[in-house]
Prior knowledge:
single chain; 11-stranded antiparallel sheet; 4-stranded parallel sheet
Amino acid sequence: MREILVIVNPASGGGRTAQRWRQLSGTLRRAGLQFDEALTKRPLEATHLARNAVREGRRVVAAAGGDGTLNEVVNGFFDDGEPMRTETALAMLPLGTGGDFRRTFDLPLQPVGIAGLLAGGDARVIDAGLARYRNHAGKEETRAFVNIADAGVGGEVVARVNRSSKRLGGDLTFMLASITSLLMWRNKPMTAIVDGERRDLKAEQVVAANCRFYGSGMHVAPMADPADGLLDYLLVGDLTMLENVRGLSKIKAGRHLDDPNPKWEVIRGRRAEVTSPEPVRIDLDGEQPGFLPATFEVVPGALKLMVPKRDR
Length: 312
């Protein structure tokens, strides 16, 4: 058993991850890196593979794919909603659609950088999030997330992206899904209670951000710190389609919170309860597992993440 296990989702990125991994794995082996690999064949298999690897005491468990693949692997570091006690570190090899998690940490895309990360990167302690919600069968379910969760139009976008072939590439796939979803979306009445603070609003979405980017490069939570023991909750109110179009470039640049706007509110906190009298989809790290009502809460120091080695 080697110290590193790479869990590969060959279906990620519209099937392009399978080819990318063949190229990358050959490069990594030629560079002298030793690892085991496991290719998944069905949804949630990555979670079981990761949990077994954590129990085996592997040094690194890496997710090769997109943010959805990463989410499955992250859940392998949890058991019954609790982070497992382990020295095993998480790594991400961003080969799929989206790739938003990597942006917060500037994770490498090139084979040389990935080899350096796996062989001798730094292990940084970071927070995770935990969501409790209603799944598609109407049953209560718990699932961890590591990047961003949201309720509202983001859930619609992700549902549309995941129904697509993803063969157009991450940015274009998300752009088309976002435009279509916004054209069809109607803002919903939602109640958000963040650490006891209640907000009743007509909302486009409620975002629970551990990291900073979602939607293939949207810098939605520019102040989020994945190691501060808190989540940044963004309450996005009754925006119109015109306001969304005008604000798109600001969100991309992370400048949408620079000026006061009554339709945007940020509350940093540990736990939020979000409800709506209407059906509202949720999104966890680019996966669409169910609907409101939901709670989103931080799990401080839940994971060790491999990041590029800092200059000392």
